[in-house]
Specification:
Length: about 170
């Protein structure tokens, strides 16, 4: 695993990255997608922001769902969020901590997997766990209800430009 940033364990400003479709950028902090559909580690009806601890992981997480073609043709915004956290304000899940190792492999999430994530988010509101797409990288889930001022933690935003070599030629 990539080493966790010290802020995740001992506190400080934890930087998380998200790639957001430009048309939805104005509401990035609402967790609407997870609320409507649920996510790998959150149940439908819960507002959660899915981010990564590195920008490259955030990009690949979106690409696996949408494809590089969409990232090349639909405008996206890469944003970073700097959340002040204290020691113990994050729940860190190591690969050995999950009940079913298949939860960290590609596939559709099970209700048990989503409930596991919900229980972890209930503890601190920030859940750090391995990425399924990039198994040596970390994702960071943020429970919107626990961070009502989430929009104020926006650190940077930039128009995303995909390297066109990632788009297959016809």
């Amino acid at each position: 695993m990539t080493p966790l940033p010290p802020e995740a364990v001992s506190g400080g400003n934890l930087t998380c990255w998200r790639l957001e479709k430009e048309v939805y950028f104005s509401g990035w902090e609402k967790g609407e997608g997870a609320y409507q559909f649920g996510g790998r580690f959150s149940s439908k009806g819960r507002r959660v922001i899915y981010t990564s601890l590195e920008p490259s992981t955030a990009i690949i997480e979106v690409a696996v769902h949408k494809g590089f073609h969409v990232l090349d043709t639909d405008p996206h915004v890469l944003l970073s969020i700097s959340i002040p956290v204290g020691a113990g304000d994050t729940t860190i899940v190591q690969p050995a901590d999950v009940s079913n190792p298949n939860w960290l492999r590609p596939g559709y999430p099970s209700p048990n997997q989503q409930q596991f994530g919900d229980m972890q988010l209930d503890k601190t509101g920030i859940l750090i766990l391995p990425s399924v797409v990039s198994s040596h990288s970390w994702n960071c889930l943020i429970d919107v209800a626990r961070f009502p001022k989430l929009a104020s933690y926006l650190k940077s935003q930039e128009r995303f430009a995909l390297d066109t070599r990632l788009v297959p030629s016809p």
